[in-house]
Amino acid sequence: MLKRLQRKFVAIAILALFTVVFVELFSVNVVNVYQRDSDSKSLLYLIAQNDGVLPNTARDDSFGAFWNPFGRTTVTVETPYATRYFVVKLHGNVVTDISTKNIASVSDQTAFEYAAKVYGEEPGYGFLDIYRYYYVKDAATGNAIMVFLDFERELEETFALASISFLVGVIFVILLSFPVYLLTRSALAPVRRSIEQQKQFITDAGHELKTPLAIISADADVLEMCEGENEWVSSIKSQTVRMNTLVRNLVSLSKLDEMASDIEHVEFNISEAVLDTALNFEPMAKSRQLSFTLDVAPDLTLKGNEGEIRQLVSILCDNALKYTNEQGEIKISLYKSGKTLTLDAYNTCDGIEKEKLPHLFDRFYRADPARARETGGYGIGLSIAKAIVERHKGKISASSADGKSILFHITL
Q1: Which CATH architecture fits 262-411?
Q2: Phi/psi-derived region of residue 235, left when phi > 0, alpha when psi is between -120 and 50, beta in every other case
Q3: What is the pLDDT of residues 127-137, one digit of tens each?
Q4: What are the start and end residues of each CATH 1.10.287.130 domain in the chain?
Q5: Exposed, middle or buried by CB within 10 Å (0-12, 13-18, 19+), for 389?
Q6: Lowest mean pLDDT among 39-43, 62-66, 95-99, 105-109
Q7: CATH number belonging to the domain at 194-256, selected among 3.40.190.150, 2.40.40.10, 1.10.730.10, 1.10.287.130
Q8: pLDDT tier at 63 (50, 70, 90 boundaries)?
Q9: Of 353, 310, 359, which is closest to residue 334 (Cα–Cα)?
Q10: Beta-bridge partners for 331
Q11: In sequence order, which residues have a C-beta less than 8 Å from that of residue 350 and are 6 or more positions away?
């Protein structure tokens, strides 16, 4: 339990750290993309407004521009020499001028072909291959201008920044995972001590209770021999048995907790283990006129603890016998699906509310307290079953298709 709690703490801490880093890096990259796009639009607009020529405009370094970086002009006297673009002018659908003097890799023919592709589009900003373009049309005169800006370097730098930033972010999260793990262990130290003290208390209390319970049981036997059998002596003996069973279950559950790494992994025939254990309950089922069915696939093997698996089957069968209604049905199944072994325990019952099903594995929880007192239930058997399943790296769940039956589904 403590190890699972620690893993959850570490996972939550790392997830929170990853989320913060991811949001920060994502924001930085979004701002970078927005800024580059804004700069390209500013350049295209200036070129189009200046009849196809980029003017030498100095940067706006005013105090207001410092506080509003997205609104500042980024053109300097050096910008025309560092900007690669070409311009196509039209009148109607006729090209009147092509200027490629500011870009060496594009010929007039190539510029014409790009203009032909953009001509059918709506005026405004757009992307074409590695170029960011601005298409302006004057409806009154029929004149139009297309400015194409080489955006390849900006795209490469944007992708490079995104790749590097997220790589650094992942490395950062991985490196911080180690101190997070160590801090989590330190933070859970009081919880670990509390759980160990609780386990020790249960074990010590169990041993201390065994002696007075044994004395009470012996005294009850003496009273029965001296005074004869009566309801008071029978009640004492019955409650002593209940107390012994409860103490034994508490100690068993305490030992199962936090011992998953100590399980002895031995391959055994689980089919035989399930059959041998379940058959012990068949006479009791028949005495109550219950239908008891075993559907166990032969020669299935499992690497685990045979004793605990037998205890698991015993708990499921005992639980089914206690809560199956009159002339009801009990069915124990074991089969293999792929690499997974599935153990099902089904029984009919008087009725169960589906919202109570998830709580059946809670310690001392009883869906029907009155019925539990009649049958001698403590609300701890299914907790032991869950602990056994988890020790074998399996899963257990409870479901009810009709509210009048219950199915315990176990995968190992």
Answers
A1: 2-Layer Sandwich (3.30)
A2: alpha
A3: 999 999 999 99
A4: 194-256
A5: buried
A6: 62-66
A7: 1.10.287.130
A8: very low
A9: 310
A10: 293, 346
A11: 325, 404
Looking at the predicted structure, is the pLDDT value of residue 199 above 70? Answer: no
CA distances from 175 to 17, 18, 167, 178 (A): 11, 12, 12, 6
Would you call 85 exposed, middle or buried from its count of C-beta atoms within 10 A (0-12, 13-18, 19+)?
Answer: buried
Q: Are 21 and 180 in contact (CB under 8 A)?
A: no
pLDDT digits (tens, 9 = 90+) for 45-59: 989 988 888 887 654
Contact between 76 and 84 (Cβ < 8 Å): no
Residues of the chain within CATH 3.30.565.10 domain(s) are: 262-411
Instruction: Indicate if the pLDDT at residue 72 is higher than 80.
Output: no
Secondary element (H or E) of residue 274: helix 270-279
Q: How many CA within 13 A on the CB side of residue 293?
A: 12
Residue 259, pLDDT score: 53
- What pTM value is reported for the model? 0.50
